[in-house]
Amino acid sequence: MAIHLQHQKRKTLFCVTIQELTDCVREGRVITKQVTPSRVKAITHSLFMNAEKQQLFFSPMVANLESGNLEHWVDGKISIIDGSHRLKAFQHLAEIMEKSILSERKGRAKIGWNIYYLMQNCRIPIQIYEGLSEKEQSQLYIDLHKKKMTRSNKILLSKDTYINWISNYLFKVDAEGGNEGTKKAMSLSQLKKIVNIFVTGKLIQGDKNASFKPCLRREEYVQLIHYWKNTLNEMCARNTTLSSLCDHFTNIVAIAQFVNHKYENASCAEREQILQERMGGLEKMETRFQVWELFEAMEAEVSRMDKQLNLLNLIGCDDERGNKESL
Q1: pTM metric for this prediction
Q2: Structural domain of 237
Q3: 165 and 132 in one domain?
Q4: Is the same domain home to 250 and 167?
Q5: pLDDT digits (tens, 9 = 90+) for 101-110
């Protein structure tokens, strides 16, 4: 066994049998994350089908030591960072084994014994860290699963995965910053729509299975959306009419479409400049009720207002058309 000191955190790699892992779970010495039942079922089925061949191929599980000694982690308590679905599948397999071995049907009993030998002899690698905080555990999970992208953006990525990563990151930052209770806070599903507008220029997602080439790095999209949200919140704090308009998410969507219109493929620097100009122009728009009731603006603002209103109307028509098609 080798213990390494990397990034000021100790870690070690063990190989344990499936039976030893399931025993630890039964004794309450393993904390797992929330799992998706369908995924657990798929892994269990794969285990079941390969039980007779005694051949399994799994990447190492990753865990953090919550209590106890790293060298003797089996006597302590660990929390699973990556591998909760596999561990749940191992538990289901153990339940199938116990029922099958006691069966009077020879064929079913044979299956049970095949699973028994698998659990006793198959070893699973598990890497255990010591002293990781919850935030570090979450970041490690993201690092293990994120898809790497070169600066040239030549690698095709899953659009859903890309947008979900940005949305989850922004949502987490808002929550940690205490913004979840503010007036203009968004739910995760709403935030995904905004991110989709910034990334693709569209509110409605296209083919979920299609790959795409993002124009910017994820960090640049995060930077743009952060700037836009902060600017919008500052404007709402100064302008009560705009604040009332932004109480409705559809209006926030319209503003997001307005600032990104025809610039979704531009560079980060260009988009920052356009975003600043358009948000600044939006704040200067006449918002008095009497003016909007007559659909007029102050004489000095007519030319600029017409241009911006036409753009907003164009976006609104496109959005309405897209919503009808989606229905």
Answers
A1: 0.42
A2: 151-326
A3: no
A4: yes
A5: 877 777 778 8
